Amino acid sequence: MAQAPASASWEPLGETFYRKQDIYSMQWSISDLSDFIVAGAPWGGPLAMIRDDRKPVLLGRHAIGKPKISVYSSAGGLLQTISWDPPTRIVSLGWTHSESLVVLTQDGTYRLYSLSTGSAPPSYTQHSLGPDAQEAGVIEAKIYEEGMVALLGNLSFVEVKGWQKSSGEGGVGGKVTLLASAGLNEPPSCWCVIPPELSHTRGVEVLIGSGATVLRLDEIDVQDQRITRGPFLSITPSPNGRFLSLLSHPSGSSPQLWVTSADFTRSLSEFDLGGEGEVGAPGQVVWCGNNTVVVAWERTVVMVGPFGETLKYFYSDPVFLVGETDGTRIISNEACEFLQIVPQSSQDVFRPGSASPSAILFEAAELFEKRSPKADEYIRNIKTELVAAVDTCIDAAGRELEVVWQKKLLRAATFGKTFLDLYNPNDFVRMTQTLRVLNAARFYEIGIPLTYDQYQAHPPSHLIARLTSRSQHLLSLRISSFLSLSPAPVLKHWAQSRITTLTSTSTPSEEDSMCLSIVEKLKDQVDVSCADVAQTAWSVGQTGLATKLLDHEVRGEKQVPLLLSMKEDEVALRKAIESGDPNLVYTVLLHLKRSHALGDFFRYVDNKPDASSLLQVYAKENDVEMLRDFYYQDDRRKETACLALEESLGVEDVAERVAKVKAAAKSFGEDKDCSFEAKMIEDQLRLLTFQQSLEQEASGKTFIGLSVNDTIRACILAGLSKKADKVKSDFKVPDKRFWYIKLKSLITLRDWEGLEAFARSKKSPIGYEPWVEHLVSTGNHRQAVGFIARCETRNRVELYVRTGSGCWRGRSVLGRRRGGSCCDDLKSRAPNAIIAAQLDQLIGEMDQAGM
């Protein structure tokens, strides 16, 4: 049997063609769609349905019991069932961009249900429109992909910007904003929402049918569009937001469809729907792409073109329309159909009588398969336009929903490429990849009838996420691999789905088996970790599995926070220490300090040297009192004493400082290994007591806090030489050190008489060279000369040189005694020419004397 041509389903509408194609035979057993409230997701998305409780129930048609929301694919496959028990009535159903189902109730509460096909109960987050909605109630709502606008009982409008911002029931939902007052006295006859991404103001706009006119409402103001064509029954914006279709039904006349620009400055077309043979106004008005409007009664669908042309389709049962960016899905009890304009590339190839290069190329490929010699003649005729013909066939293949025509068009493109010397095959390869992905998604068991244009509107990861949410993990992984995308999101969702299948009665062996299978799948993945999956396990109550999964997590920064959330504090601290990250250890320590009593907190740190060291570093800078308690708890006497000493250094009050030093002495005394330290602290106490008496004797002078050496120096500088001697005696200061201190102190005072007396008091234990050096270094050269004679003979010449030019002659005499080499050295360092000449004379005399 010969195959029907591709244009068999085309119908002309004005100067172009439209086609209505069967996509699926529905798998459900629904007999009447009019009994349900239906919400269809765009982009070939699922259908959510709940029985309309405002309509009477025919016995035997529907089960009696609690209402439930059923979610079906476009092919009628049941994806999810949600039991509905809340006491308030459902006002509206809708879908988000990520295919989460939005369920809004009359009391202003809305839920976001994640699409899931697993056996576990559907997960959701619950949010509120605020106290105004709870008090006044919700009349109606319009839900779009990135938000929602609701009409409240007090006739005000509120907007939900975005959706959930945190997980878990009762989490924070999208931002709720009250729009400007529309000044309504009664509910509007109709209204619609223009989403922010389509609005000229980049904010949400609400168009309200009020009497004969339309009001435009946003957050700031309300504007009357000053038209007189109402009242309106519906206002529907086009997918690109540039046009509006308004349905009115004046009293005593037939329904009127008016298409205008979004700003009401241009009237594009008007159409009287009274001649379509249906009674009353249509129940639905949607756009078919951005070109035509589709209206539907229960069993009749009419497409209205830009110039008033129409196409009619009749059904035996009620239908439901879902507007798409490039067409309209028509859902009936028996089938899912897609109505769209025939793409230009398809028209070029398949339009009857077409003489375009692409049509000739397609015909040439068909003739070539039949081994007809005319194929070569056809190719020669379009040789100069062959590249464009190949490109058109490739594009047309992407626009076709039937695989047979996709293959024919791609074979035609392949045939044409063989006659081209240079042709970039990237578009061809990309299209074949895209078609394989689209055909897999369109398969009836999957039920996502994406068109090529819809697929191009989002990145491939969006389709993979949609497949993943339906638990099509194998297909998602194959597509990810086929398109060279990371499989991490799919594997993460797969692992989380596996976990939700466990029950409270699952055995440890089942947990072990699941843990190993998850770890095996995730072991080579960089973008997903065991901690991500363990979070899900813990959230559903599988604490044992979560802990086992975390044992396989190698990244401490992901592992530790979850362990803390799970109250596994001991394990969290151990893992933080093993990670080698001090910041992570600090995080755990601070968490433990906040959440536990101080004694319990210290027990966590006990026997963990790394954590103990970091705790001490932190406490020294931020909480000394806690550090003292920690040392006391751990019986660390030595550390307690050192801490007391450190604190004493910053205390100005003498009595308090003495008390802290005494506390340190007590702690050192209680540690048998710190006898030396205890003795030193006793000396420190004696020194403090002596310094205190010195400050009383020498008012205005500071002694507290000085070392023994500095105390001696301060006593000498204050004229308390006897006190300095007492310090030397009491603290057994060695003679050499004492002489150095006193020498420097007397030079600082410039007490030359005292310095001379000190030198004569007894033989210097440090010699006299240091006297000369310190005097020279402080610029007291003349005083230094007087002590050179007391120095050793072998050092005197050098010391004379260091004192300057005052006594060069005398030094030359010494040089004579030591020989010519010394005189030569003196000459090289002579400060002026006169002394250099004297040294030359001396060297000559020495030469004559044979020295």
Automatic annotation (TrEMBL):
Name the UniProt record assigns to this protein: Probable vacuolar protein sorting-associated protein 16 homolog
GO-annotated biological processes: endosomal transport; intracellular protein transport; vacuole fusion, non-autophagic
Domain called Vps16 C-terminal: residue spans: 528-804
Keyword terms: Protein transport, Transport
Keyword Metal-binding: no
Cellular-component GO terms for this entry: bounding membrane of organelle; endosome; HOPS complex
Domain Vps16 N-terminal: residue ranges: 7-430
TM spans (from-to): none
Pfam families: Vps16_C, Vps16_N
Functional summary from the UniProt entry: Essential for vacuolar protein sorting. Required for vacuole biogenesis, stability and to maintain vacuole morphology.
GO molecular function: actin binding
Family stated for the protein in its record: Belongs to the VPS16 family.
Organism, as annotated: Leucosporidium creatinivorum
